[in-house]
Amino acid sequence: MTNVFVISDHHFGHKQIIDFESRPFADVDEMNAAMIDKWNAVVGKDDKVYHLGDFSFLNREKTQAIVSRLNGYKFLIMGNHDRGRTRSWWLDVGFHEVSEYPIVYNGFYFLSHEPMYMNKHMPYVNIHGHIHGQKYEGAQYINVSVELWNYEPLLFDTIKEMLAPNEEQ
Q1: What are 69-98's pLDDT values in tens digits?
Q2: In what residue span(s) does the Calcineurin-like phosphoesterase domain sit (predicted)?
């Protein structure tokens, strides 16, 4: 069975993010290596990962080297820091699919980089990144930035379990 994961905001190669977000790494090389290991510890070769943006600050060759080491079928939803590069650039470095815009997953979940406006009467859930260690109020928002999930991609079934008490079936 193929598992589906979501994660965002790795910022591979971004030295300053260690201080900005109080990441527990001595330097960028340690951070990159740890995040690759954590990804591969939970994601299998046949699994699918939706990366919700801000993947890498590195050049083409170094980004490609990281993507090639990561398990799974990789779908990038471009974040604000990914937009300096084209959709085809991201495909060339190894992502299987790339979207410049949010997508709707399973007809109910909005997968986006930045949180989207959701009023309390909307029955949908927004799975997003961008705000790193911060959280939006309410069950309609799930922040999958790496800082909140021990730098590991989050199993989509875990999100469904988190929402189960709030869903009327």
Answers
A1: 999 999 999 999 999 999 999 999 999 999
A2: 3-130
Mean pLDDT within 53-65: 98
Measured at the CA of 157, the angle between CA 77 and CA 100, to 5 degrees, comes to 5
Does residue 138 register a pLDDT over 80?
A: no
Sign of torsion over alpha carbons 115, 120, 122, 125: positive
pTM here is: 0.93
CA distance 92 to 102: 21
Show the domains of the chain with their CATH numbers: 4-101+143-161 (3.60.21.10)
Q: How far is CA 95 from CA 17, 56, 73, 80, 140, in A?
A: 23, 12, 8, 17, 28
